[in-house]
Write a structure and sequence with these properties.
single chain; about 100 residues; mainly alpha; about 55% helix
């Protein structure tokens, strides 16, 4: 993640999309796949609660931050696709969080 804030000329495949199987399109990422990755017992932050892990990812992918800090560093040719992918991730994470709050 640190390199995303300092690198220019980013492309779709430069992003650490939060799914186990690298997506080739935004539509390849589902809420279920995002949840499997974020909530994996093998994740580096597995000691944190599910809610805290989801919230940490939301901070990374939140459109206000992502679109101002990271998206300008993406090649113009990939920008719409990356923006759509980040939107899919943000919506999936928000859905996961709302499910956790209902528990």
């Amino acid at each position: 993640w640190k390199s995303l804030f300092t690198s220019d000329g980013l492309r779709w495949n430069d992003f650490p999309w939060p799914v186990f199987k690298r997506p080739s399109e935004p539509e390849d990422m589902t809420t279920q796949a995002i949840g499997a990755y974020v909530l994996s017992k093998n994740a580096p932050d597995a000691q944190k609660s599910s809610k805290d892990r989801i919230k940490d990812h939301i901070k990374r992918w939140h459109p206000d931050r992502f679109e101002t800090k990271v998206l300008p560093r993406v090649f113009q040719t990939d920008r719409d696709k990356v923006k759509a992918g980040a939107g899919v991730v943000a919506r999936g994470l928000n859905e996961l969080l709302s499910r956790r709050q209902e528990d």
